[in-house]
Design brief:
Layout: H1 16-21, H2 24-45, H3 54-82, H4 91-104, H5 106-110, H6 114-135, H7 138-142, H8 148-165, H9 167-178, H10 184-207, H11 221-229, H12 239-253, H13 255-286, H14 291-320, H15 323-342, H16 347-375, H17 381-400, H18 402-412, H19 416-435
Helix pairs in contact: 2-3, 2-6, 2-8, 2-9, 2-10, 2-13, 3-6, 3-17, 3-18, 4-6, 4-10, 6-17, 8-14, 8-16, 9-10, 9-14, 13-14, 13-16, 13-17, 13-19, 14-16, 15-16, 15-19, 18-19
Length: about 450
Amino acid sequence: MTSNAGLGVSPNKFRSVDYIKITIFGFALAALWGSLHTIILQVRLLDFVAESQKNTYLGLLTFTGLMLAMIVQPIAGAISDRSSFGWGRRRPYILLGIIPAILLLPGIGLAGGYITIFVIYCLLQVSCNTAMGPYQGFIPDLVPGGKRGLASGVKTLLEIGGGVALIYPIALFMDSYSAGQGEFWLWLSLGMLAVVLLGTMVATVVTVKERPGAGGSQLPLLPTLYKSFKVSIKTHPNFVRFLISRLLRFIKKHPDFVWFLVSRLFILMAFTTLQTFALYFLKDVVGVADPAAATARFSIVVVAGMLVLVYPAGRLSDKIGRRPIAISSGILGALGVALIFLFQHSYMAIIVCGGLVGISFGAFMSANWALAIDLVPKGEEARYLGLTNIATAGGAALARLIGPLIDFFNASSPNLGYSVMLLACCIYFIVGSALLLKVRGRR
């Protein structure tokens, strides 16, 4: 059983409040990206790009930023694993990443064109993922093995809560902004996100008590970075062949983890596609008068569905296993998307179907994260959990590439692109569920 000496208590005295301490930061990150990716960027881009190309520009913007996230997060996690600071090996990177993020947020309001907002968004991804990679090491570092499913459920619960906590007021503010009622509403939205980021960062840095220097390499930061990612060109003159050989060796050594990553990627692609293009779908296909608020209501129902099962799914996965819950939830998600396609012109029907998708995704994320923690090697937890961002950010990034396809098919026939989008989501859910059959789980 893993010790949680970093909190200064024995495993059987891990308190309820400790679960909150080590996961509250995820609430803020979910609030940030949920608001940006669902409401703020969609509305803000309409200030700069043509209506007929909005899905394309949104897709390319978020794809690029998320590709950066996919690179930065595991690197930050790996450096964190090897670090040995006096006040812990995770919290310094949370501080290092979030302070620049707070300073970058006003740039979204100050941007005068697409290129400017593109650069700011990419820098925001880099800074937040510098914090995210090390943060994900808290559960394997501090939580006893038999309680990690519960901790994963709490983590997912807070992330779901963060994703919806600010989305409705921000949606109302952004509808007022897009209706020409002044930039005050845009600044109020960005200010709320900055306050939440600052508050949870301070709470995490102050309340989580890591064991000084635990697990680190005892090297300063720059030598740690060099040693972690040093590649000798003399030893590996054919760098591409070297990378391929390392990748194949990793796949052979950790086949369960690789299948897990590919499965997670497909499921995340399905959910992220729905989240990203929901506002434009409701605006163009359903014809709602207040697209931002309508998207927020849809998101709230989805989150309510998540909340129904996310906590019990985490606990149940400790008893019956991770795979049965994750596979069943993926199939349920495919059913929810199919129903959205059948009733795509009825807003109320779409709302109900959104709840079904939310139930499936909440159960999946809780069980899936517990499965990830089961699979990571001891001593390299943050590095491997950071590698899950290949699936998380990679799936989210690939989901954005359907944006140009939506615009292409919409140009061929009105709203045909959105039907293609829903079909793709259904396929993603099914493939992601099937791939989990390859994962053997805890060994």
